[in-house]
Amino acid sequence: MTEFRFLNGGDMVVKLNGEVLGGVKKAVCRKNNTINKIMEFLNETPVASFAESSYVVELEMNLADIHFFYDKNTFDNIEFLNKQKNVRYSDCCVEQTESIVNPEGNVDYRVKIVAERRSVGNNDS
Length: 125
Description:
Number of strands: 7
Number of helices: 0
Strand content: over 45%
Helix content: under 10%
């Protein structure tokens, strides 16, 4: 998310399938590259290699509805918007959900989402 320049998290809106997702305390977005090599039989030198990318979005949030992500396996997109730009992750799959009880007694939720595609554009709204 290096395309974004903002002063605080209040400048950012997170949308899931076009609806605002509340309670997000922290979001970590990263790109994973996998290199696949095509090898000859009994030869250690690769004939060809190609890279595949996937995108991971990890959210830390406090939600009133504990089953919000537990009941979702896949969804179309998740977007991060500020005043100038938006980043959209598409063809998403919930890979992991986790509940954490803090020392203060609050329950936070972590969700790991894997997306096939990522696009960056200007915010038209």
